[in-house]
Each structure stands twice: as C-alpha cells, then as structure tokens.
Amino acid sequence: MLGITIDNKLTWTAHINTLYDRTLFLTSNFNRIIKTDWSVNKNLIKFWYNTVIEKALLYGANVWGGALNKYHVDRLHTIQRIFLLKFARGYRTTSTNVLNVLTGIPPLHIAAKAEFLKFQIWVRRSGDYNDIINNVQLDYNILIKNIPSDMKLVSLSEHLPDATYEVYTDGSKINEETGLDVCILKDNDNTQNFLFKLKPYNSVFQAELAAIQFAANWAVSENSKINLYTDSLSSILALQSASSRSNFVNKAKTDLFKAKNLVGLSWVKAHVGIQGNELADQQAKLATTTGEELLIPAPRSYLNRTLKQLILHEWCGYWNKYTSASGIRVRGFLDTVSPNFLIYNKILIYFLSGHGPFPFYLHRFKRVNSPLCTCGLVGDADHYVFDCSLTREFHLIKPTEASKKLWFKNLMSNKQAIGKMTNSFKISNDICDSLTRDSP
Ligand SMILES: [Zn+2]
C-alpha cells in the first residue's frame, strides 16, 4: 500500500505538470473564439469553464486531489491562472487569488479536493469523512446490468377498470422539511391517509417516489387493485427509465414490479382542481410537520450540495488569509467570495485590484521612477476616480469606509458611473504613458 502511495505521488506530480500543456491547448481554442467575437458573453465563458475546462483539469482528481502538497497547489494555481487571465483581461500581475474572486471561480486545488472527497464518500464509502456529511446515511449506486430487463423498466397500465381504490400520492418540501402522503379513496370517500415525514436532506423527488412505492406495497398487503395518481412526472419517468443506478430508485422499481397486476399508474396535472390531487397536496404539506418519521438515505444531490458548501467555506478561509495589498483592497469592497459573482468589466478589475494604468502601480513593478501623478499626489486607482484634478469632470463621490461594499455593489450595475471611471482611467493611462517616456 505504501509503495502504491509513493508511486501515485510521483505520478500525480507528473500528471499535474501535464495539465499545464492541456490548459494551454484548451485556452488557445478560447483565444480564437474571443478574438473573432468580442461579444461572447462572459457568463457563457464561465459556463464553459465550469463544464469543460475544469472537468478536463480535474481529470483523475478523485485520486490526486487528496494529497496535494505546497508544490502541487502552486502548480495548480499557475495552471488555472492561464485561463483566469484570459478570461478577466486584467493586468498580468493581478494575483490568482484576486482573479478567482472576481470571476467567481474557486481555486483549483480546492475544487480538486472536493472531487477527491466526492469519490471517497460516494464511491469508496470511506467512513473517514462522515463528519463532512454530518453522518448522514447516503443512497448508493448499484450494478444495474444484472437486473432482468422487465424489472429495469417498470411499465404499468395507466388505469385498471376493476380497481377498488383510487389512491392519490404527493410529496412536499416546506421550510426545508420534506414530507409525503398517500390518500386512499373508495367510491369518492377518503377512507385513509398515510403521512410520513422525511429528513431535510431528502428531495421532493424521493418523497414523491417513496409515496408511490408505499401505495404499491399497500395494494399488495391489502391484495386490492388500486388506480394510483401522481402529479410527479419525474417519478413516472424514473420508473420507466432503465438508467438509474440509485439503490433507492431501483428498490422502488422492484416493489412496483411486484405490484404490477394490482396497480394502475397515471399522471395528473397539479393545481387544476382535481379533488384527490388537491387533497394529497394538502396532506403532503401537513406531512412535513406531523407525519410519521420515515428514513430514506440521502440522495447524491445532498452530497453535491454539501461539497459545494465545503468548497465555499475553504475558499473563504483561503481568501481571508491572503494578505497582499490587493487582497486587502478587494476585501474592502467585496463582502465575501461567491461562485455566483462575476465582474464583466476590466475597468472594474483595474479599480478593485489596483493593478491598472496608475503610476503607483507601475512604480511598484519598476516601470516608472515615481509613484506620483503629474499633479504631484500619489497616483493610485482611488486618486483618479475620486481626487485627481486632471480627472475632475469624471469624479465619483468617495464612499465612506462603512459604505464601501454597498457602494461597489451599486457601481457594478451603474453604467454611467462605470463610464466615468473608464474616462478617468483613459486619462491616467495617458499620464502613465508620458511618465514611461520620461523614465530613463
Ligand atoms: Zn493626479
């Protein structure tokens, strides 16, 4: 085992190194798209990153993502940076940490770790990470190739003409509480209701399918024919699909298969006044608080959600430890990191990061001799946006320390203010040009 680990570690380093070339290749493609069409929507590019590029970069991360050392983390940042720079079009010196925050794309080493955890928890069923999922029992995938084909795809008749009972089922989620119910009707009389309460981590889909499953088992135990009505199309589709590997879904299928001569199953439109469906809807809401407790293992979506929160949490911690000047500056204007955040405008990136056409910045990177503006004051981003006499006609009103975050939030959607900032930075750019020329 030790030998394998050592071998793996060597391979991981080699693998991570190959990612560099892979990213260059993927983003060269990206360059062509951007060059030919500047109007490509930034959200679309981000979507492309999330669905294509990150997947390619995280290939095998279920193995290597768990044992990253400082070298690996740095290397992954260098790799992700290739993309982030092209995407954000900020100055080349803008730090990877800042670019992550401004594009809402989490650092690659954190995404890799989540990938590793997903594999350990879902596939390997390792108990080492139970605390991450709050010790919740998870659904699992089964091998479906061994299931006989007539049980893989449960096809029930829609309506049994000689059924004794009409049964309406429903699932519901209110205030994070999940419930389900099965309402039995005989000759239009509501003779019996079964209400169950699930856990907050259970999905509505699970509730709906569990309700159908319970109804089918009830028909078997009563040895009575029922016509079953549900407004959950996804449940019906799950029963009719051969592809679900979920143990929970397949157990429901098995039960439905056993009851197939006793159950007619059809879909009814919700909220159109069908009496039985309205009753089931109302009872399902009741079930979320008063139903009998029913334990169904959490769906995979629960794990995915939990890992997303973990990524956010780790990213937040990592970001707050980043104490460079630009990190501190950006934190002054932004509340926190978020995968939903995205800055479209490079002018805003210059302003936020402080890395842009400013003497103060260029001096820091030894491109000009002095950090001072031609007006004699320190020429940083704030100077041109709020203070410099040379940009006076484009000034914005400087926010107080306490209102900086709200101010920036509003600025992002204020085209007029961004236009002023753009003009200020055109002037500061000219100033920088003249300073660069003057430098020996
Ligand atoms: Zn000035």
From TrEMBL:
Q: Which InterPro entries match?
A: RNaseH-like_sf, RNaseH_domain, RNaseH_sf
- Pfam families hit by this protein: RNase_H
Domain RNase H type-1 spans what residues?
161-289
What are the protein's GO molecular function terms?
Answer: nucleic acid binding; RNA-DNA hybrid ribonuclease activity
Q: Source organism's superkingdom?
A: Eukaryota
Q: What is this protein called?
A: RNase H type-1 domain-containing protein
Species source reads Araneus ventricosus (Orbweaver spider)
